Structures are given as structure tokens and as C-alpha cells.
Amino acid sequence: MSLTIQVQTMLAMIGMGLYVGAALDTYGRFVKRRNTFHLVTAFNDILFWLVQGLFIFYILFSVNNGELRVYIFLALLCGYAAYQSLFRSIYLRLLEWFISFIVGFYRFMRKVFITIFIIPVKTILKLLFTLCMMI
Questions:
Q1: Number of compact structural domains in the chain
Q2: For residue range 60-77, what is the model confidence (pLDDT) as tens digits?
Q3: For the chain, N or C: smaller number of CB within 10 Å?
Q4: Which domain holds residue 16?
Q5: Distance between the two ends of the chain, CA-based, in angstroms?
Q6: Do the domain assignments include residue 57?
Q7: 132: in domain
């Protein structure tokens, strides 16, 4: 393996370490943790780590044909540590803002839908019912 490929692999795995940290925080934000064992939560955890592992290996395979070396695991660990120490607080604030934005947008669109479609239909049906009762 040439030096260029090794540097590309190292940078890719540091990036994947950053990604795994962000993905883990995102997954933790959406999963409700319980004190007791639940089969669905265990299945989701296994599925999450399986997908993360496959994605890491896909990136590794695309960079250096899937050759595993010790420094690859060290680069993943360094990327994860960099995420935890440098980017975690920023990412969590950004994630909360994004979730709030999506929820607010959903509520706005729901109100628009109700105002444009539901209220006029209800009003027309009430009017028709009133007219039918008068006859």
C-alpha cells in the first residue's frame, strides 16, 4: 500500500470516527432508554452497530480495498475522541435546533392544511346540513 493510500485511509477513518460519534449522539437522542431490558431496544442497538460497521467497512473498502491495519482502529478512535472533545457540544446544539425546526415546520404545515382544507370542508358540510334540516 502506497503512502498516499495510507494517508487517505487515515483521514477517512478519522472522518468516520467523527461520523460515528455524531451518529451515536443522534441515535441516543431519538431512542428512549429504559431501566429494564426490552427486546426492541436491543434489536435496534444491534441493528445500529451493524449498519455503522458496514458503513465504516464500505468507506474503508472504497479507500484501500478493505485492508485492515492497527492504525485504522487508532484513527477511528482518534476521530471519535476529537468529536467528543471538540465537536460534541456544537453538534448537539445544532441537532436540537434542527429537530425544533422540523417540529415547528410540521406544526406550521399542519395548521396550514387544517386552515386551507379541513375548516372550509367542515363549514360547507355544516352549511349543507343546516340547509337540509330547513327543508
A1: 1
A2: 999 998 888 899 999 999
A3: C
A4: 3-95
A5: 89
A6: yes
A7: no
